[in-house]
Write a structure and sequence with these properties.
By secondary structure, the protein is α+β, with helices and mostly antiparallel strands. It has 3 helices and 4 strands.
Length: 118
Amino acid sequence: MDAQRRKQHRSIRRKQHVRKKVQGTPERPRLSVFRSAKHIYAQLIDDLNGLTLASASTAGKSKPYGGNVKAATEVGKALAAAATAKGIQVCAFDRGPYRYHGRLKALAEAAREGGLKF
């Protein structure tokens, strides 16, 4: 197995480790986060019905560079505002294969400050 394939395999195992404990429901959706080198994406997902209830990201024409903590904080605030507009106050945080550190931590803390509880 080459290095890239091993790295991908480890990432999938870490993601499965987190996901087996976290499931989104209509009352308590799952806050899923994906981060790339340039952008960060977050969405509230109802796994029982397979629906995305709210989302926010740095990708778009009017958005600045999204690969830093400041941009992640803005995404967290935007997601919390979208969630409270739809009447969602509680969610389950799904960090995926990423450590709770840096941009991920900034997004989560901003969402908490915006009114989401997890």
